[in-house]
Design brief:
This protein is mainly alpha-helical. The chain is 61% helix and 0% strand. Helix 1 runs antiparallel to helix 2 and helix 2 packs antiparallel against helix 3.
């Protein structure tokens, strides 16, 4: 039986698992958005709730910052993924050409 105080980590893991399942079904953008939403949800829960069980690993500031950055990066990379990105960021347009090429 799941202890009652562990519902935040369970919810975050269920959202991430649902995202992986959606991705596996062939809808990679929607699935990865759900995977990115899982740490964002975790950050909100850690920020707003006094007791989050195993979701609390470090200090509140560190947990919230790391989960927010991780979730934000996953969502951003999902939105700019090729082909036909849902979000166009001019700085990231030619980043593939820069990787592996020395600056001249």
């Amino acid at each position: 039986m799941l202890p009652l105080r562990q519902w935040p980590i369970t919810l975050v893991l269920l959202v991430a698992a649902a995202g992986l399942l959606i991705t596996w079904q062939g809808h990679f953008r929607l699935g990865l958005l759900a995977v990115g939403a899982a740490p964002l949800l975790g950050a909100l829960l850690r920020l707003g709730l006094p007791d989050v069980g195993m979701l609390a690993v470090r200090s509140r500031f560190t947990d919230v910052t790391l989960m927010f950055v991780l979730g934000g990066v996953i969502v951003l990379l999902t939105l700019v993924a090729q082909p036909d990105p849902w979000l166009r960021v001019p700085v990231l347009e030619n980043i593939g050409r820069l990787i592996g090429h020395p600056m001249r």
